[in-house]
Structures are given as C-alpha cells and as structure tokens.
Design brief:
Helices cover 36% and strands 13% of the residues. It is globular. α6 links the parallel β2 and β3. Strands 2-3-1-4-5-6-7-8-9 form a 9-stranded mixed sheet, with helices on both faces. The two termini are 38 Å apart. α7 packs parallel to α9.
Amino acid sequence: MMASNVSRDVSQDQSSVVQTCKPWYAFATVAAGRFVRFASRVTKHGGSALPGKVVEKIDPGFLTRTLGQLPLGVVLVSGTNGKTTTTRMVASMLSDLGLKVFTNPTGSNFVRGVVSALLTEVTLGGKLDADIAVLELDEAYAVHFVKQVKPRYALLLNVMRDQLDRFGEIDTTAKLLSHVAAATTGTVVLNREDPRIAALAAKAPAGTTVRYFGLADDLRRYFPSDDDMATTVSVEGVAGPFPSARTPLSPRSELRGASAGTAELPADVTLTAVGDHKATFQMDGQGYATDVKLEGVYNLYNAAAALAVVRAVMQDNAAASKATAAANACAVSADELIAATVKADNVVSTLLQALKCLSQVHHARHRHMRGRTGRHLPSGGVH
C-alpha cells in the first residue's frame, strides 16, 4: 500500500501547522468530546457540531496537533460552488491511489465541524491514522481554519453571486479566499477562467507553487463565470492595474503583480471536450479521453479541478505514486496501472482510471448555479 511509502518529513509537517502548546489534560480531550457527542444524541440537543464546539473551548490546540500528524498535510477546498462535489472527487481519487484519506462529511464545512469529524476518527490518545486530509471549508470559515492550520495544498474553485446574501459583495468573497492562498505552504490550484480566483496567484507566498485548471476556448461559453457580467476585479493586496467595470477582464490575462497583460495562463489540467458521460482532459500537452460516470457538465469541470490538485499531491509524493492501490479500480490490475504510471513518468494514467470509476456525488445541500445552467450542450457534445 502507498501509505507505507509515504515520506514523513517532520520539518515540512511542522512548517504547515501553527505550533501550539499541549495542555496537561489533553489526554482526556477525545474522551470528553465523545461523551458530549453521546449526550447530544441521547438528549437530541446540540447538533453534530456540539462536540467540536466543546473541544475548541477546552483544548484549542486539538485541531492543530491532530492535523499536524499528517505526513502529506492538508488539502483545503473552497469556493462558492462545487466544494462538496470536488472534495469528494479529490478524496476518492487519492484513496484509489492508495493514500489513507481523512475528509469531513457533507455539511461540516466549518472549523468545529472538522473538529467533530476528527473526534470520530482518532484514537483515544489522539492518533489519526491517515496520510492526508481533504477538507471542504466554507469561504468565511476557511479564514479561521488557516489561522490554526496552514494547508499544504489549496484548491480554490470560483466566486459566484449566490453568496451575496452572506458576504455583501462578490469581491468580499474573493478577499476571504485570498487568506487561504496566502497561508498555503505547498501548492495553490486556481481556476484560470475566474479572474478573481486567478488573481489570487499574487497572494501565494514565496516558495508556494501556483497551478491552474482551465477550459478550452470553445467550451467557455458553456461554463460562464461571474465576470461574464463585466464586473470589476479588486483583491486587496494584489497589484494592479486592473480593468474598470467598463473594460471586461479577460480571464486569460496574466494577473500576477504588475505584469498584468494578455499572456495566457498555463493550465496544468484543461477540459477540452465533453460528451455523454465522456470527457477529454489535456495534461502535459497530451489529450486524454475517458469515460466518466459523473452527471452534468459542471461536474466535469470540477473533475479537472480535482485532477489538478491530485496531480500536485502525487507528484510531490513521487516515490509513493508507484505503489498505487488501484487494484480494485474498474477491474484493472495494479500491475497494469503501475506500469502505465511509470511509463508516463507521472500519474496521469492512474488518475484517469480513478476518475473513470467515480460516480455522481450526491449531497443534501446541492445548489444550482442560478441563471447559469440554462445553457445546454449539443447532444453530440462539444470538442
């Protein structure tokens, strides 16, 4: 199994986690949290997040210490739409690739929800048996999360207007996500087609890699971003100049610092064609066509996002990538997958096998892209 080959770089782990003092009573934290969860269920009061709320009060460093054990750190997924679906994709693919993955359940995309989820997975001594965590975080709560745990990887999806009732204006949401980019220690993966997200590259600290996922030109009209409405881009701390509201911003513009221009941002993964349960992704200059079980064209773009961050994780963990645990992936033998991976000198073939086996991710809080999903693809797909 890949987990046995995961490199446990202690110094790298420590750089990704804010250090906190462990209280003398920390040995009782998990037991206390589980007791609260039991009492909450018996009394039917408090909700699923109550154990996390209590643990945050009695042992504020629990989250930091627990996630600090992970040899591959934390993947943080955030954005207005698609968080839940994409998080499930990333967790599923990493699991198929042999990693032990901790992830928070649907509806627990806030800090105390993550703490509550950890209480169900750790031992009484606080040991978390996982290689990596893949966490969905609400945009506002992600700001609080990164103050405690610096993610090694961040996947930032989009900024859309269905959050205006919460955050007031669309640029406010972008500013929230800028804190995530600024706190990421390894790789930030950004949506090239969303100018506000692409602009966050300027917030990534020195030494942090920036990657993009994107769309082929002829697909963009089927995946409209909020900037198709020609609104302004204003991210605090990002150097201009930026176009005004009268000058629509090209999502392909180079938005890093003062070099804003017209050069196309290179995408690590590009969705180039979609059809009936089929998709083509371009990676490393090559097109890879694959069957997918995912429903809906937006989920295919979410799949491109998931592929990009999983590639980053696996390329950082190159030695472990050879020991893929995809023996049960669609009846393809582990030897065949390993051979394909080694031959390509990357994890593309293995990733596509994992993606092919993904089913549609259902979640209770499904949100429609209001006013944006009315456009339909031709029956034969788009190439």
